[in-house]
């Protein structure tokens, strides 16, 4: 006799997120801004508070009981979060977030380019005329660090175009990759378009020329079953506050050989073996990349958040969110004057849609929705070049998560359908 998994119970899930009981302007809160910051389950809140109340201490320092307890909690959190993305603990370095992780990657490659790190790091060196390949769809955090690296090394930035439907032009990507390509950095999921990019194809293009791959997994980690080693990327980053965890914590994943070869970016206490007045020797990864005081309670909270997701189950969450994505798409398509970005047929995606309302600025749309209790994102979403590519300066972005209900999506759609009339825009 076969048994099926229990149905996804979104009402039960919502009970685990205290903030969802709030009201806005006398309306129940409909939180559709999870792509910016996801809300935290009580399990994550309680885990961080429990650590601070019972074990708060500096890690990897001191012989007293609290220091040992804190270190155990910190390293246990590393093991849990690494396992969540299919990695070994030594392949995961804590950062303050994805932006810090991308800067770490870019500056470590820059230090290698400056001759730091010895022979092992020479494979990462950039010279004038070498190329860094990005996409038109990158978040500024995966664009500006590479701009800075190019400026320091004389390397040239190149960009894979985005088609009108929001997908990457992979024919152009194949033409852009050359024997001068040294880094290929791209988002797993666009934070504006919601489309899952073809990681395997991009990794293969990079491998053909020996380029280092860097993956921004901020928008995929909360929604997709991630196995970073299986994806074949050299480096990847994700952020805690988008993964139902605390602010101020994220991670840099790296293949073991890559982390062992790269020189550090930040230096100071806790990442060294021996220091003299004139030189220092560094610890093995991941501690080599963890100078100074670490986000200990935040790591504990993030581990609790991913354990919570594991208890619910990736497949159940994915099915729920896929249904919401279709509901949002179909509803927005049917509203006069609404232009959807990234409406690619059959593209794999997450439940995130950006759209423009003809004749009404995105900020006005956002305020109108807020007055009805619906929280969405407005602006360029730290992706000005992508908006410029579509002839826009700003859009409205609605993004769902495991706690989002069909009713909340419908409330958003109803509010959007009344925007143009409210602002006196006629066809």
TrEMBL record:
CDD domains reported in the protein's UniProt record: SufS_like
Entry protein name: Cysteine desulfurase
Enzyme type, top EC level: transferase
Pfam families, per the entry: Aminotran_5 (PF00266)
Native organism: Microbacterium limosum
GO molecular function: cysteine desulfurase activity; pyridoxal phosphate binding
Lineage: superkingdom: Bacteria
PROSITE patterns on file: AA_TRANSFER_CLASS_5 (PS00595)
Start and end residues of each Aminotransferase class V domain: 31-411
Keyword vocabulary terms for this entry: Pyridoxal phosphate, Transferase
EC number: 2.8.1.7
Family classification: Belongs to the class-V pyridoxal-phosphate-dependent aminotransferase family. Csd subfamily.
GO terms of biological process kind: cysteine metabolic process
Entry-linked PANTHER family: CYSTEINE DESULFURASE (PTHR43586), CYSTEINE DESULFURASE 1, CHLOROPLASTIC (PTHR43586:SF8)
Catalysed conversion reaction: (sulfur carrier)-H + L-cysteine = (sulfur carrier)-SH + L-alanine
């Amino acid at each position: 006799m076969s048994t099926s998994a229990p149905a996804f119970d979104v009402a039960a899930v919502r009970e685990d997120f205290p903030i969802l009981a709030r009201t806005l302007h006398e309306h129940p809160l409909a939180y559709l801004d999870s792509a910016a910051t996801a809300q935290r389950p009580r399990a994550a809140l309680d885990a961080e508070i429990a650590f601070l109340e019972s074990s708060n201490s500096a890690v990897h320092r001191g012989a007293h009981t609290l220091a040992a307890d804190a270190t155990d909690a910190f390293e246990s959190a590393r093991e849990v979060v690494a396992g969540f993305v299919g990695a070994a603990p030594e392949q995961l370095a804590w950062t303050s977030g994805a932006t810090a992780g991308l800067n770490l990657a870019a500056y470590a490659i820059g230090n290698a380019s400056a001759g730091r790190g010895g022979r092992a790091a020479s494979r990462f060196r950039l010279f004038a005329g070498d190329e860094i390949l990005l996409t038109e769809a990158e978040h500024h955090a995966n664009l500006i660090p590479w701009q800075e690296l190019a400026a320091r090394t004389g390397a040239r930035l190149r960009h894979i175009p985005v088609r009108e439907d929001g997908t990457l032009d992979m024919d152009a990507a194949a033409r852009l990759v050359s024997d001068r390509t040294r880094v290929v950095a791209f988002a797993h999921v666009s934070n504006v378009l919601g489309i899952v990019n073809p990681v395997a194809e991009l990794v293969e293009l990079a491998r053909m020329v020996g380029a280092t791959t860097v993956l921004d997994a901020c928008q995929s980690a909360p929604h997709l079953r991630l196995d970073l080693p299986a994806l074949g990327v050299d480096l990847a980053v994700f952020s805690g506050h988008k993964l139902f965890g605390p602010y101020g914590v994220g991670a840099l994943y790296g293949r073991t050989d890559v982390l062992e070869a790269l020189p550090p970016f930040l230096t100071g206490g806790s990442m060294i073996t021996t220091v003299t007045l004139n030189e220092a020797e560094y610890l093995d990864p991941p501690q080599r990349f963890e100078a100074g005081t670490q986000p200990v309670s935040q790591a504990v909270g993030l581990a609790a958040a991913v354990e919570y997701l594991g208890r619910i189950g990736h497949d159940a969450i994915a099915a729920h969110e896929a249904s919401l994505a279709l509901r949002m798409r179909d509803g927005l398509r049917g509203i006069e004057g609404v232009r959807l970005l990234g409406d690619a047929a059959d593209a794999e995606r997450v439940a995130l849609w950006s759209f423009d309302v003809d004749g009404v600025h995105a900020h006005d749309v956002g305020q109108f929705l807020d007055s009805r209790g619906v929280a969405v994102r407005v602006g360029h979403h730290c992706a000005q070049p992508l908006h410029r590519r579509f002839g826009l300066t700003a859009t409205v972005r609605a993004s769902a998560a495991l706690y989002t209900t069909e009713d909340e999506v419908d409330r958003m759609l109803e509010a959007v359908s009344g925007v143009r009339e409210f602002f006196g825009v006629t066809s």
